[in-house]
Backbone:
């Protein structure tokens, strides 16, 4: 069975990872909204669904207004944390603006896992 990569992406980072993963494993790519709209999954496919999360960055420009406002409020609140560690302060500053840390190398563990699943099915 060919690997089907189903993703949802508000700002494009997850879509980028999903595309990289589909290319790497020779799989098909499907947006979750389309999968749900067309009831695109067979019962057999539903048995093998695995969920992976890859953080690629943040794009305030691509966020919808409620999410953007919530993120700005969160960053404002945590910036004022009195006992924040240096690591937390760095994270808060990064979250204050858009950034892109996506890298194709981060899909390798997922690709290896999926390759292992394919090998198990073949046995």
Residues:
């Amino acid at each position: 069975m060919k690997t089907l990569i189903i993703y949802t992406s508000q700002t494009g980072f997850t879509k980028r990872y999903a595309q990289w993963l589909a290319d790497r494993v020779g799989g098909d790519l499907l947006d979750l909204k389309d999968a749900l709209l067309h009831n695109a999954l067979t019962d057999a496919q539903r048995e093998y669904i695995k969920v992976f999360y890859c953080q690629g960055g943040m794009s305030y420009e691509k966020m919808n207004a409620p999410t953007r406002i919530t993120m700005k409020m969160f960053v404002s609140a945590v910036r004022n944390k009195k006992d924040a560690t240096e690591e937390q302060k760095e994270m808060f500053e990064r979250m204050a603006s858009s950034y892109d840390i996506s890298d194709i190398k981060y899909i390798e563990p997922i690709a290896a896992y999926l390759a292992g699943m394919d090998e198990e099915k073949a046995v």
Summary: The chain has two domains: 1-56+101-123, 60-99. The CA atoms of residues 12 and 95 lie 17 Å apart.
